[in-house]
Protein backbone atom coordinates (compact mmCIF):
# COMPACT_ATOMS: atom_id res chain seq x y z
CA UNK A 1 0.00 0.00 0.00
CA UNK A 2 1.17 3.50 -0.79
CA UNK A 3 2.77 5.13 2.22
CA UNK A 4 0.50 7.40 4.22
CA UNK A 5 -2.59 6.40 2.24
CA UNK A 6 -4.66 5.62 5.32
CA UNK A 7 -3.66 8.96 6.85
CA UNK A 8 -4.58 10.81 3.65
CA UNK A 9 -8.09 9.37 3.64
CA UNK A 10 -8.40 9.91 7.36
CA UNK A 11 -10.82 7.06 8.04
CA UNK A 12 -11.52 7.45 11.71
CA UNK A 13 -14.66 6.65 13.68
CA UNK A 14 -16.46 9.10 15.91
CA UNK A 15 -14.86 9.58 19.30
CA UNK A 16 -18.29 10.20 20.82
CA UNK A 17 -19.57 6.84 19.60
CA UNK A 18 -16.46 5.15 20.87
CA UNK A 19 -16.82 6.71 24.30
CA UNK A 20 -20.54 5.96 24.50
CA UNK A 21 -20.40 2.35 23.34
CA UNK A 22 -17.84 1.41 25.99
CA UNK A 23 -20.66 1.81 28.49
CA UNK A 24 -22.94 -1.05 27.45
CA UNK A 25 -24.16 -4.32 28.89
CA UNK A 26 -23.33 -6.09 25.65
CA UNK A 27 -19.71 -4.97 25.65
CA UNK A 28 -19.23 -6.11 29.27
CA UNK A 29 -20.93 -9.46 28.59
CA UNK A 30 -18.69 -10.00 25.56
CA UNK A 31 -15.69 -9.51 27.81
CA UNK A 32 -17.09 -11.97 30.36
CA UNK A 33 -17.70 -14.62 27.73
CA UNK A 34 -14.45 -14.27 25.81
CA UNK A 35 -12.66 -17.24 27.44
CA UNK A 36 -15.60 -19.60 27.71
CA UNK A 37 -14.64 -23.23 27.47
CA UNK A 38 -16.05 -24.66 24.29
CA UNK A 39 -15.18 -28.15 25.51
CA UNK A 40 -17.65 -27.87 28.39
CA UNK A 41 -20.40 -30.29 27.41
CA UNK A 42 -22.88 -28.73 29.82
CA UNK A 43 -25.23 -26.12 28.37
CA UNK A 44 -24.31 -22.49 28.94
CA UNK A 45 -26.66 -20.85 31.45
CA UNK A 46 -27.29 -17.23 30.49
CA UNK A 47 -28.11 -15.34 33.70
CA UNK A 48 -26.54 -12.16 32.40
CA UNK A 49 -29.11 -10.58 30.10
CA UNK A 50 -32.83 -9.93 30.29
CA UNK A 51 -34.34 -11.62 27.25
CA UNK A 52 -36.18 -14.84 28.15
CA UNK A 53 -38.00 -15.02 24.79
CA UNK A 54 -36.06 -18.10 23.66
CA UNK A 55 -37.23 -20.22 26.63
CA UNK A 56 -40.37 -22.31 26.00
CA UNK A 57 -41.98 -21.25 29.32
CA UNK A 58 -41.68 -17.59 28.34
CA UNK A 59 -43.16 -17.79 24.85
CA UNK A 60 -45.47 -14.89 24.12
CA UNK A 61 -49.23 -15.32 23.82
CA UNK A 62 -50.66 -16.62 20.50
CA UNK A 63 -52.98 -13.61 20.63
CA UNK A 64 -50.02 -11.31 20.04
CA UNK A 65 -48.64 -13.57 17.29
CA UNK A 66 -52.04 -13.60 15.56
CA UNK A 67 -52.33 -9.82 15.88
CA UNK A 68 -49.04 -9.36 14.02
CA UNK A 69 -49.87 -11.87 11.32
CA UNK A 70 -53.37 -10.37 10.84
CA UNK A 71 -51.88 -6.90 10.54
CA UNK A 72 -49.27 -8.12 8.08
CA UNK A 73 -51.77 -9.97 5.89
CA UNK A 74 -54.27 -7.13 5.86
CA UNK A 75 -51.97 -5.22 3.49
CA UNK A 76 -53.03 -2.04 5.30
CA UNK A 77 -49.65 -1.50 6.91
CA UNK A 78 -47.18 -1.76 4.06
CA UNK A 79 -46.49 1.96 3.85
CA UNK A 80 -44.63 4.50 5.96
CA UNK A 81 -46.34 5.49 9.19
CA UNK A 82 -46.62 9.06 10.52
CA UNK A 83 -43.46 9.85 12.49
CA UNK A 84 -45.35 9.98 15.80
CA UNK A 85 -46.96 6.58 15.06
CA UNK A 86 -50.32 5.53 13.63
CA UNK A 87 -53.38 6.88 15.42
CA UNK A 88 -55.10 3.55 16.31
CA UNK A 89 -51.91 2.39 18.02
CA UNK A 90 -51.47 5.65 19.94
CA UNK A 91 -55.13 5.55 20.96
CA UNK A 92 -54.75 1.95 22.18
CA UNK A 93 -51.70 2.86 24.28
CA UNK A 94 -53.48 5.92 25.71
CA UNK A 95 -56.33 3.68 26.82
CA UNK A 96 -54.07 0.93 28.13
CA UNK A 97 -52.03 3.35 30.26
CA UNK A 98 -55.02 5.45 31.40
CA UNK A 99 -56.45 2.42 33.21
CA UNK A 100 -53.89 3.02 35.96
CA UNK A 101 -54.10 6.83 36.03
CA UNK A 102 -56.40 9.32 37.77
CA UNK A 103 -56.87 11.19 34.43
CA UNK A 104 -57.16 10.20 30.79
CA UNK A 105 -54.25 10.35 28.38
CA UNK A 106 -54.95 11.49 24.85
CA UNK A 107 -53.42 9.82 21.77
CA UNK A 108 -51.53 13.11 21.37
CA UNK A 109 -49.62 12.36 24.57
CA UNK A 110 -48.23 9.18 22.98
CA UNK A 111 -45.28 8.80 20.60
CA UNK A 112 -44.42 5.38 19.19
CA UNK A 113 -40.76 4.43 19.20
CA UNK A 114 -38.48 1.58 18.18
CA UNK A 115 -38.62 -0.14 21.56
CA UNK A 116 -38.15 1.62 24.85
CA UNK A 117 -34.55 2.12 23.73
CA UNK A 118 -35.48 4.70 21.11
CA UNK A 119 -37.82 6.44 23.56
CA UNK A 120 -34.82 6.94 25.86
CA UNK A 121 -32.76 8.15 22.94
CA UNK A 122 -35.46 10.65 21.95
CA UNK A 123 -35.87 12.21 25.38
CA UNK A 124 -32.16 12.40 26.15
CA UNK A 125 -31.45 13.99 22.77
CA UNK A 126 -34.24 16.50 23.23
CA UNK A 127 -33.03 17.50 26.70
CA UNK A 128 -29.35 17.78 25.75
CA UNK A 129 -29.01 21.50 25.31
CA UNK A 130 -25.58 23.00 26.03
CA UNK A 131 -24.52 22.76 29.72
CA UNK A 132 -27.54 20.71 30.72
CA UNK A 133 -27.14 17.87 33.21
CA UNK A 134 -29.34 14.89 34.08
CA UNK A 135 -29.59 12.85 37.28
CA UNK A 136 -29.34 9.08 36.83
CA UNK A 137 -29.73 6.29 39.39
CA UNK A 138 -26.79 4.19 40.56
CA UNK A 139 -27.06 1.27 40.02
CA UNK A 140 -28.91 1.86 36.79
CA UNK A 141 -29.51 0.87 33.21
CA UNK A 142 -26.33 1.82 31.34
CA UNK A 143 -28.02 2.80 28.09
CA UNK A 144 -28.84 6.13 29.79
CA UNK A 145 -25.17 6.81 30.53
CA UNK A 146 -24.17 5.72 27.03
CA UNK A 147 -26.72 7.88 25.28
CA UNK A 148 -26.07 10.87 27.54
CA UNK A 149 -22.37 10.58 26.65
CA UNK A 150 -23.27 10.43 22.98
CA UNK A 151 -25.46 13.55 23.32
CA UNK A 152 -22.87 15.36 25.47
CA UNK A 153 -25.37 15.57 28.30
CA UNK A 154 -23.61 15.72 31.67
CA UNK A 155 -24.53 12.86 34.01
CA UNK A 156 -24.76 13.12 37.81
CA UNK A 157 -25.53 10.02 39.85
CA UNK A 158 -27.75 9.65 42.87
CA UNK A 159 -27.71 6.38 44.79
CA UNK A 160 -30.43 3.82 45.21
CA UNK A 161 -30.18 2.68 48.82
CA UNK A 162 -29.90 -1.10 49.29
CA UNK A 163 -30.69 -0.85 53.01
CA UNK A 164 -33.95 0.92 52.14
CA UNK A 165 -35.15 -1.54 49.52
CA UNK A 166 -33.32 0.43 46.80
CA UNK A 167 -35.28 3.64 47.30
CA UNK A 168 -33.97 6.84 45.74
CA UNK A 169 -31.64 8.90 47.93
CA UNK A 170 -33.75 12.04 47.61
CA UNK A 171 -31.33 14.15 49.68
CA UNK A 172 -28.68 13.35 47.08
CA UNK A 173 -31.06 14.37 44.30
CA UNK A 174 -31.50 17.77 45.94
CA UNK A 175 -27.80 18.18 46.57
CA UNK A 176 -26.91 17.35 42.95
CA UNK A 177 -29.44 19.63 41.31
CA UNK A 178 -28.47 23.04 40.01
CA UNK A 179 -29.96 25.50 37.54
CA UNK A 180 -28.79 23.34 34.62
CA UNK A 181 -30.43 20.12 35.82
CA UNK A 182 -33.14 19.11 33.39
CA UNK A 183 -34.47 15.81 34.68
CA UNK A 184 -34.05 12.79 36.92
CA UNK A 185 -34.55 9.20 35.81
CA UNK A 186 -36.15 6.35 37.72
CA UNK A 187 -36.61 2.76 36.57
CA UNK A 188 -39.68 1.13 38.11
CA UNK A 189 -40.00 -1.88 38.47
CA UNK A 190 -36.25 -1.73 38.81
CA UNK A 191 -33.50 -2.92 36.56
CA UNK A 192 -31.00 -3.94 37.91
CA UNK A 193 -32.36 -4.16 41.49
CA UNK A 194 -35.71 -5.92 41.05
CA UNK A 195 -37.31 -3.42 43.43
CA UNK A 196 -40.76 -1.83 43.14
CA UNK A 197 -41.27 1.70 44.48
CA UNK A 198 -44.18 2.34 46.83
CA UNK A 199 -46.91 4.88 46.09
CA UNK A 200 -45.59 7.06 48.94
CA UNK A 201 -42.03 7.00 47.68
CA UNK A 202 -43.06 7.90 44.11
CA UNK A 203 -45.08 10.78 45.49
CA UNK A 204 -41.99 12.02 47.32
CA UNK A 205 -40.01 11.74 44.09
CA UNK A 206 -42.63 13.92 42.37
CA UNK A 207 -42.63 16.47 45.18
CA UNK A 208 -38.85 16.67 45.09
CA UNK A 209 -38.92 17.17 41.31
CA UNK A 210 -41.48 19.92 41.73
CA UNK A 211 -39.44 21.68 44.38
CA UNK A 212 -36.38 21.52 42.12
CA UNK A 213 -38.26 22.33 38.91
CA UNK A 214 -37.08 19.24 37.03
CA UNK A 215 -38.80 16.61 34.92
CA UNK A 216 -39.16 13.01 36.01
CA UNK A 217 -38.37 10.40 33.36
CA UNK A 218 -39.89 7.11 34.44
CA UNK A 219 -38.72 3.94 32.70
CA UNK A 220 -41.63 1.53 33.07
CA UNK A 221 -40.53 -1.07 30.58
CA UNK A 222 -41.26 -3.72 33.29
CA UNK A 223 -44.74 -2.34 34.00
CA UNK A 224 -46.95 -4.84 35.82
CA UNK A 225 -44.15 -7.40 36.15
CA UNK A 226 -44.46 -7.30 39.94
CA UNK A 227 -44.80 -10.23 42.32
CA UNK A 228 -44.15 -8.92 45.82
CA UNK A 229 -45.99 -6.69 48.28
CA UNK A 230 -45.81 -3.40 46.39
CA UNK A 231 -48.15 -3.13 43.42
CA UNK A 232 -46.96 -1.38 40.27
CA UNK A 233 -47.83 2.33 40.40
CA UNK A 234 -47.07 4.35 37.28
CA UNK A 235 -45.22 7.61 37.92
CA UNK A 236 -47.80 9.31 35.71
CA UNK A 237 -50.19 9.15 38.70
CA UNK A 238 -48.20 12.13 40.01
CA UNK A 239 -48.09 14.00 36.71
CA UNK A 240 -50.00 16.92 38.22
CA UNK A 241 -47.32 17.38 40.88
CA UNK A 242 -44.46 17.45 38.36
CA UNK A 243 -44.38 16.71 34.63
CA UNK A 244 -43.51 13.08 33.94
CA UNK A 245 -42.21 11.47 30.77
CA UNK A 246 -42.90 7.75 30.78
CA UNK A 247 -41.04 5.37 28.51
CA UNK A 248 -42.09 1.77 27.95
CA UNK A 249 -42.63 -0.99 25.43
CA UNK A 250 -44.20 -4.38 24.81
CA UNK A 251 -40.74 -5.99 24.98
CA UNK A 252 -40.83 -7.23 28.56
CA UNK A 253 -44.47 -7.74 29.53
CA UNK A 254 -45.21 -9.57 26.28
CA UNK A 255 -41.66 -10.99 26.05
CA UNK A 256 -41.12 -9.86 22.47
CA UNK A 257 -38.08 -7.55 22.61
CA UNK A 258 -37.37 -8.40 18.97
CA UNK A 259 -40.60 -6.76 17.82
CA UNK A 260 -39.14 -3.33 18.62
CA UNK A 261 -42.26 -1.51 19.68
CA UNK A 262 -42.16 1.06 22.43
CA UNK A 263 -43.50 4.44 23.44
CA UNK A 264 -42.76 7.79 24.97
CA UNK A 265 -45.62 9.39 26.89
CA UNK A 266 -46.06 12.88 28.29
CA UNK A 267 -47.92 12.62 31.61
CA UNK A 268 -48.56 16.28 32.05
CA UNK A 269 -52.17 17.13 32.91
CA UNK A 270 -51.16 20.76 33.60
CA UNK A 271 -49.69 21.13 30.12
CA UNK A 272 -46.36 22.45 31.41
CA UNK A 273 -44.35 20.83 28.64
CA UNK A 274 -46.33 22.58 25.95
CA UNK A 275 -46.08 26.01 27.49
CA UNK A 276 -43.28 28.20 28.60
CA UNK A 277 -44.62 31.73 29.09
CA UNK A 278 -44.41 33.63 32.36
CA UNK A 279 -48.18 33.77 32.55
CA UNK A 280 -48.39 30.02 32.43
CA UNK A 281 -45.86 29.60 35.20
CA UNK A 282 -47.64 32.09 37.43
CA UNK A 283 -50.96 30.48 36.62
CA UNK A 284 -49.49 27.17 37.61
CA UNK A 285 -48.38 28.63 40.91
CA UNK A 286 -51.66 30.28 41.82
CA UNK A 287 -53.94 27.45 40.87
CA UNK A 288 -52.07 24.90 42.91
CA UNK A 289 -51.87 24.36 46.62
CA UNK A 290 -48.13 24.86 46.41
CA UNK A 291 -47.55 28.58 46.89
CA UNK A 292 -44.07 29.21 48.16
CA UNK A 293 -42.64 32.11 46.17
CA UNK A 294 -39.13 30.80 46.53
CA UNK A 295 -40.10 27.60 44.79
CA UNK A 296 -42.14 29.46 42.19
CA UNK A 297 -39.06 31.42 41.23
CA UNK A 298 -37.03 28.24 40.84
CA UNK A 299 -39.68 26.84 38.51
CA UNK A 300 -39.99 30.04 36.56
CA UNK A 301 -36.27 30.34 36.03
CA UNK A 302 -36.05 26.73 34.98
CA UNK A 303 -38.80 26.79 32.49
CA UNK A 304 -37.74 30.08 31.01
CA UNK A 305 -34.09 29.21 30.66
CA UNK A 306 -34.39 25.55 29.78
CA UNK A 307 -37.48 25.05 27.76
CA UNK A 308 -37.91 28.38 26.10
CA UNK A 309 -37.97 29.07 23.26
CA UNK A 310 -38.02 25.44 22.11
CA UNK A 311 -40.67 23.63 24.03
CA UNK A 312 -40.14 19.97 24.75
CA UNK A 313 -43.12 18.60 22.88
CA UNK A 314 -42.11 20.38 19.67
CA UNK A 315 -38.60 19.07 20.08
CA UNK A 316 -39.83 15.49 20.51
CA UNK A 317 -41.88 15.78 17.32
CA UNK A 318 -39.00 17.42 15.54
CA UNK A 319 -36.58 14.69 16.51
CA UNK A 320 -39.03 11.97 15.45
CA UNK A 321 -39.11 13.62 12.03
CA UNK A 322 -35.43 12.91 11.58
CA UNK A 323 -35.25 9.33 12.94
CA UNK A 324 -36.75 6.01 11.87
CA UNK A 325 -40.04 4.49 13.08
CA UNK A 326 -41.16 1.07 14.33
CA UNK A 327 -42.30 -1.29 11.55
CA UNK A 328 -45.78 -0.19 10.46
CA UNK A 329 -47.36 -3.67 10.64
CA UNK A 330 -46.23 -4.05 14.26
CA UNK A 331 -47.86 -0.68 14.97
CA UNK A 332 -50.93 -2.02 13.18
CA UNK A 333 -50.99 -5.07 15.46
CA UNK A 334 -50.79 -3.05 18.66
CA UNK A 335 -54.51 -2.37 19.26
CA UNK A 336 -55.24 -6.11 19.11
CA UNK A 337 -52.24 -6.96 21.28
CA UNK A 338 -53.22 -4.50 24.00
CA UNK A 339 -56.94 -5.10 23.91
CA UNK A 340 -57.11 -8.86 23.44
CA UNK A 341 -54.26 -10.29 25.55
CA UNK A 342 -55.87 -12.18 28.37
CA UNK A 343 -55.18 -11.93 32.07
CA UNK A 344 -54.18 -15.59 32.27
CA UNK A 345 -51.13 -14.98 30.06
CA UNK A 346 -49.97 -12.14 32.33
CA UNK A 347 -50.59 -14.11 35.51
CA UNK A 348 -48.76 -17.14 34.12
CA UNK A 349 -45.67 -15.01 33.45
CA UNK A 350 -45.85 -13.19 36.78
CA UNK A 351 -46.20 -16.51 38.64
CA UNK A 352 -43.21 -17.92 36.77
CA UNK A 353 -41.17 -14.84 37.71
CA UNK A 354 -42.32 -15.00 41.34
CA UNK A 355 -41.24 -18.62 41.68
CA UNK A 356 -37.97 -17.95 39.87
CA UNK A 357 -37.26 -14.92 42.11
CA UNK A 358 -37.89 -17.06 45.21
CA UNK A 359 -35.58 -19.84 44.04
CA UNK A 360 -32.90 -17.35 42.98
CA UNK A 361 -32.98 -15.37 46.23
CA UNK A 362 -33.06 -18.43 48.50
CA UNK A 363 -30.30 -20.28 46.65
CA UNK A 364 -28.05 -17.21 46.45
CA UNK A 365 -28.47 -16.68 50.18
CA UNK A 366 -27.04 -20.13 50.85
CA UNK A 367 -23.76 -19.08 49.24
CA UNK A 368 -21.31 -17.70 51.82
CA UNK A 369 -19.57 -15.11 49.59
CA UNK A 370 -22.84 -13.61 48.31
CA UNK A 371 -25.33 -11.25 50.01
CA UNK A 372 -28.67 -10.17 48.55
CA UNK A 373 -29.96 -7.15 50.48
CA UNK A 374 -33.54 -7.70 49.41
CA UNK A 375 -35.72 -10.18 47.64
CA UNK A 376 -36.70 -9.04 44.15
CA UNK A 377 -40.33 -7.94 43.83
CA UNK A 378 -40.42 -7.01 40.16
CA UNK A 379 -38.65 -7.09 36.78
CA UNK A 380 -36.29 -9.99 36.09
CA UNK A 381 -33.18 -9.24 38.15
CA UNK A 382 -31.56 -9.28 41.54
CA UNK A 383 -28.41 -7.49 42.69
CA UNK A 384 -26.03 -9.56 44.80
CA UNK A 385 -22.97 -8.31 46.65
CA UNK A 386 -19.72 -10.27 46.50
CA UNK A 387 -17.69 -10.70 49.64
CA UNK A 388 -14.28 -10.96 47.97
CA UNK A 389 -12.39 -11.16 51.25
CA UNK A 390 -13.47 -14.78 51.70
CA UNK A 391 -12.54 -15.77 48.16
CA UNK A 392 -9.05 -16.91 47.37
CA UNK A 393 -8.12 -15.73 43.93
CA UNK A 394 -10.85 -13.38 42.72
CA UNK A 395 -9.77 -9.81 42.11
CA UNK A 396 -13.09 -8.09 41.51
CA UNK A 397 -16.56 -8.55 40.01
CA UNK A 398 -15.31 -8.76 36.42
CA UNK A 399 -12.74 -11.37 37.40
CA UNK A 400 -15.47 -13.29 39.26
CA UNK A 401 -17.74 -13.28 36.21
CA UNK A 402 -14.97 -14.21 33.73
CA UNK A 403 -13.83 -17.15 35.88
CA UNK A 404 -17.40 -18.26 36.53
CA UNK A 405 -18.13 -18.24 32.79
CA UNK A 406 -14.87 -20.03 31.98
CA UNK A 407 -15.15 -22.73 34.62
CA UNK A 408 -18.89 -23.26 34.93
CA UNK A 409 -20.42 -21.92 31.70
CA UNK A 410 -22.67 -19.62 33.71
CA UNK A 411 -22.92 -15.99 32.65
CA UNK A 412 -23.83 -13.25 35.12
CA UNK A 413 -23.35 -9.50 34.70
CA UNK A 414 -20.53 -7.77 36.61
CA UNK A 415 -21.86 -4.93 38.76
CA UNK A 416 -19.51 -2.39 37.15
CA UNK A 417 -21.72 -2.55 34.06
CA UNK A 418 -24.55 -1.04 36.10
CA UNK A 419 -22.41 1.20 38.31
CA UNK A 420 -21.84 -1.11 41.33
CA UNK A 421 -18.34 -2.51 41.54
CA UNK A 422 -18.00 -5.90 43.23
CA UNK A 423 -21.66 -6.71 42.90
CA UNK A 424 -23.27 -8.91 40.24
CA UNK A 425 -26.65 -8.73 38.55
CA UNK A 426 -28.37 -12.09 38.18
CA UNK A 427 -31.34 -12.66 35.87
CA UNK A 428 -33.87 -15.20 37.06
CA UNK A 429 -36.03 -15.06 33.92
CA UNK A 430 -34.79 -18.30 32.42
CA UNK A 431 -36.26 -21.80 32.13
CA UNK A 432 -36.77 -23.00 35.75
CA UNK A 433 -34.58 -26.11 35.33
CA UNK A 434 -31.71 -23.98 33.93
CA UNK A 435 -32.03 -21.58 36.85
CA UNK A 436 -31.58 -24.39 39.41
CA UNK A 437 -28.66 -25.75 37.43
CA UNK A 438 -27.01 -22.32 37.11
CA UNK A 439 -27.38 -21.45 40.79
CA UNK A 440 -25.93 -24.83 41.73
CA UNK A 441 -22.91 -24.14 39.55
CA UNK A 442 -22.44 -20.66 41.08
CA UNK A 443 -22.44 -22.25 44.53
CA UNK A 444 -19.92 -24.92 43.48
CA UNK A 445 -17.71 -22.19 41.99
CA UNK A 446 -17.81 -20.08 45.17
CA UNK A 447 -17.04 -23.06 47.43
CA UNK A 448 -14.15 -24.08 45.21
CA UNK A 449 -12.67 -20.58 45.36
CA UNK A 450 -13.27 -20.04 49.08
CA UNK A 451 -10.23 -19.37 51.28
CA UNK A 452 -9.18 -22.27 53.46
CA UNK A 453 -10.27 -21.71 57.05
C1 LIG B 1 -34.90 -3.75 28.35
C2 LIG B 1 -34.88 -2.37 28.85
C3 LIG B 1 -35.07 -1.28 27.98
C4 LIG B 1 -35.14 -1.44 26.50
O1 LIG B 1 -36.37 -1.91 26.08
P1 LIG B 1 -36.67 -2.24 24.54
O2 LIG B 1 -38.13 -2.11 24.45
O3 LIG B 1 -36.18 -3.62 24.30
O4 LIG B 1 -35.95 -1.25 23.71
C5 LIG B 1 -35.13 -0.01 28.54
N1 LIG B 1 -34.99 0.20 29.86
C6 LIG B 1 -34.77 -0.81 30.72
C7 LIG B 1 -34.61 -0.52 32.17
C8 LIG B 1 -34.70 -2.13 30.24
O5 LIG B 1 -34.43 -3.13 31.09
Automatic annotation (TrEMBL):
Keywords: Pyridoxal phosphate. The modification N6-(pyridoxal phosphate)lysine is found at residue 252. It comes from the Eukaryota. Residues 45-442 form the Aminotransferase class I/classII large domain. The keyword Cell membrane does not apply. Its cofactor is pyridoxal 5'-phosphate. GO terms for biological process: L-tyrosine catabolic process. SUPFAM superfamilies: PLP-dependent transferases. GO terms for molecular function: L-tyrosine-2-oxoglutarate transaminase activity; pyridoxal phosphate binding. NCBIfam families: tyr_nico_aTase. Belongs to the class-I pyridoxal-phosphate-dependent aminotransferase family. This is Aminotransferase class I/classII large domain-containing protein. It comes from Camellia sinensis var. sinensis (China tea).
Amino acid sequence: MENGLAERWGFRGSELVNKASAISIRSVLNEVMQNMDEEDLRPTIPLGHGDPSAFPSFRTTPIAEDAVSDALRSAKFNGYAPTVGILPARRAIAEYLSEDLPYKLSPNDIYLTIGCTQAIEVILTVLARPNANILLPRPGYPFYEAHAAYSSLEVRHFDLLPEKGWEVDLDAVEALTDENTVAMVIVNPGNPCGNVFTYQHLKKVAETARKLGILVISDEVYDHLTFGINPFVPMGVFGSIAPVITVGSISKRWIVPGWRLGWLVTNDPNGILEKYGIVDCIHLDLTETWKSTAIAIVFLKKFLSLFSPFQIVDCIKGFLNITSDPATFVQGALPQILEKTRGDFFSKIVNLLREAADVCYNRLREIPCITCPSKPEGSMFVMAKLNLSILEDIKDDVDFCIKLATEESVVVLPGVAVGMKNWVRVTFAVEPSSLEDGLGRIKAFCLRHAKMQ
